[in-house]
Amino acid sequence: xxxxITQIASELGITSKQVQNTITLFDEGATIPFIARYRKERTExxxxxxxxxxxxxxxxxxxxxKRRKSIIESIKEQDKLTKELEKLIIEAQTLxxxxxxxxxxxxxRKTRAIIAKSKGLEPLAKMIISQKYFDIxxxxxxxxxxxxEVNSVEEAIAGAxxxxxxxxxxxxxxxxxxxxxxxxxxxxxSKVIIGKNEEGIKYKTYFDWEEALMRSPSHRxxxxxxxxxxxxxxxxxxxxxxxxxxxxERIYIKSNNQCAEIIVKAIKDSYKRLIxxxxxTEIRTSVKEKADREAIKVFAENLRQLLLxxxxxDKNILAIDPGFRSGCKVVCLDKQGKLLHNENIYPHPxxxxxxxxxxxxxxxxxxxxxxxxxxxNGTAGRExxxxxxxxxFEKKLIAVMVNENGASIYSASSVGREEFPxxxxxxxxxxxIGRRLMDPLAELVKIEPKSIGVGQYQxxxxxxxxxxxxxxxxxxxxxxxxxxxxxxxxxxxxxxSGLGPVLAKNILDYRNKNGAFKSRDELKNIPRxxxxxxxxxxxxxRIPNSENPLDNSAVHPESYSVVKKMANKSGASIKNLxxxxxxxxxxxxxxxxxxxxxxxxxxxxxxxxxxxGRDPRKKFAFFEFTKGVNQIEDLKExxxxxxxxxxxxxxxxxxxxxxxxxxxVHISCLADEFISxxxxxxxxxxxxxxxxxxxxxxxxxxxxxxxx
Length: 708
Known about the structure:
By secondary structure, the protein is of the alpha/beta class. The model has no long low-confidence stretch (mean pLDDT 93).
């Protein structure tokens, strides 16, 4: 592991000590949120992104070393490993460099060169590649051997040429040189497959497309590759063959004789038959991996913004999952999200029983002291919103449209069935909509992240990398907000640093048996909740009504003694420190520095004392769609509407304007000036004003603009 430290430090622009200490903390079982929040002295305040990069780079280098070891063992078995070759392998920095070195020694199927070598033609190939002056036909004649199936001078020279072609292909300098051509000069082309024009109409943009490969953005690469995978497009990578062949000739051709002529032909053959197909596959893989990384990065950022959306908070909620024919499922939830009541109403066609539906809603609002109404934004969502707004309640209520992406997945999932085994999917879906309004993070963690409906081409990217990245985001969000251990679901607790499914279940079992936790210390009574789990998790778990106010803060129990010293020195209680800014201002942090606790942690403690238990997420802001615009047919070019950002991609942002079909604000229409990243202008759930540029009802496409 030590050999990685200097390299990683150099690559990430941090010190070797920071890398070393982070790796040590990982080895001790620490999690990324724990290291970032509670071990700042040891990492010199590295953030979660830097710590994650260290973890990922370690894994990459370990995988590279595994391949390095495998290659050395393979060449050893062939008894061909020299000290010089081993040094080359050990010093190789990339996988492609390693594979280029290994290529001549890689076990092969029966190639044309292997067949030629079996016929004894390798000495002739060596003579030709030396480019000395001699009579080639005369030398080739000596290699005619009927038993070895070398029947003529021409066959002998052809076999030798096959051997030379393979040598050229296996030359790591040639491959590195040609790879650079691919990287800087390659062009990607896309053509529609004959007869697939209508069937593949959604890929019309790429029916006749060509652009520089390295300038092609991730969304276009993924779109073209998907079109190819689905059988609508033919994708090719092109480079200037003549230019590449000439550059290889400059490496090999050293004379002007018959041998050189044969080598020139062998170079062309090697390029067409061996080098190009191999490097085309490699560059396609490389480009796809780069596109995956960029798409995953966009997805992860969208997910972070969605999970950290402002919560309405602990309110009695009436939630509605809208529908036409099957009616609207209505549920009532208490302040903790517990299901109290459910029933159906039928205010829309074909029943149109709006009077009875209105009566039921008023009755439920009064009976369950409802403080807000959540309405799913799917089918019949706007119609239901309009219906609710016509009702005259005895008190002022807000009615909020809630993005229901993934609610159906939750309602049919094992998590949904476990929570509500006696209810059907419609009830679970409505509950999910209501809880999303109360606390988006707590509810959305129950759904597989890639089913939430943000991101681009999530099914086309590397699923392992996607899962890891999204998992990191969920863990980061859950731990940055903190979790009320007395109300959290098993799914939410699972993501807390140091817990996981087993301890999460044990916490729930203990809570159900013994009632609410009264202090963080009580966590130690949970089965299998040992010292390490307590160290990693306690700071992220909140006990709102604990006797010790620090139990409802991000101050770690290991620092409680420091806070007590601060309070004693101030002649006040911890509660006084929480409430009195003047007292906190008088604290000299240098008085409390120890060999384990430095200024970074002490500053965090002081910040936390100023806002104990306060949710770091923004405050909830009420939003309404433009009245009178409920479906795509209501849209007209030039209309100015209110909308909410639902998804951000590399090419722009999708905005819900309340017509059951999100509109696209292309990146060129997001701002008056040029931007390269939509995330610099908009965020998920941001309220925006847009103008309708174009409406295609048939294709259900809406083009919007945010420019003045």
